[in-house]
From TrEMBL:
This is AraC family transcriptional regulator. Keywords: Activator, DNA-binding, Transcription, Transcription regulation. The lineage of its organism: Bacteria, Pseudomonadati, Pseudomonadota, Gammaproteobacteria, Oceanospirillales. Pfam families: AraC_binding (PF02311), HTH_18 (PF12833). GO terms for molecular function: DNA-binding transcription factor activity; sequence-specific DNA binding. It comes from Motiliproteus coralliicola. PANTHER family: HTH-TYPE TRANSCRIPTIONAL ACTIVATOR RHAS-RELATED, TRANSCRIPTIONAL REGULATORY PROTEIN.
Amino acid sequence: MPLPPSTKQIDQHYQHFTALPQLGLRSTSGSTQGYKAHSHPQLSIGAVIDGQTCLTIDGGQHLIGTGELVIIEPERVHACNPIDGQSRSYHMLYVDNHWCLERLSRLYQKPTRRFNCDQRRIDNPELFKRYLALIDQLQQQRYKQAETTLEALALELLSRWCSPAEIDDSADGLEQRLRRRLLDDIAQPPSLDLLAVEFGRSKESLIRRFGQAFGITPKAFITNARIEQAKLLLQNNAPLVEVAMAVGFSDQSQFHRAFVNYTASTPRQYQQSRSIFDNND
């Protein structure tokens, strides 16, 4: 039986668009690479082009097949993994959170600062067709058309399957304070032993409370935050070893392993993603 391709051998690339800064695109073909639980600061809109994938989110699992879309709101912990080692091909659009919030605010005629997706799997052939049209327009650098298609697609998704979520401004619980302390310095976050003393709780209690609130352990949360910060540095062409040190990994090898586990791509692959400029419109 042939061995599955390594991460470096997988046909995948990222694209960032100067003409559409609110949008990023990842395209992956024939991948059996799995993911650890993670989150993104953007709205994620995925399309399975071939095969199937298993979305694990909110304690449940969803089977997403060829011709179907999936939507995941910003900061929602999830993982998409192959089924029985079978390969799958997909696109993933990442849409800026503030851009989405502006449109929801206009739709509901009130300030919207957070939203939830009411449904994950979307089996709608017409929407899938429009999604693929957007991908084609982006890849062909037809950005004026792409902007129009994106606006229509986003309105459909946000209005039909997303809802504003209330934020309790008075909430300042243990979980929120713990999260802020972890983010004070992601390169050298305080240890759980130190935080247990600081908050007057056991380590086990902190881990349990954090997991119940955010669906992820404090350790995994910090790793995910480091990866997201690393992506920004990689987009600015910072050397890999400097990126690893800047976000708190002990060496480039540890950074490489974590990046692959959380993104199913290597740091070099991500850094070499094409930045597309609007030359045609």
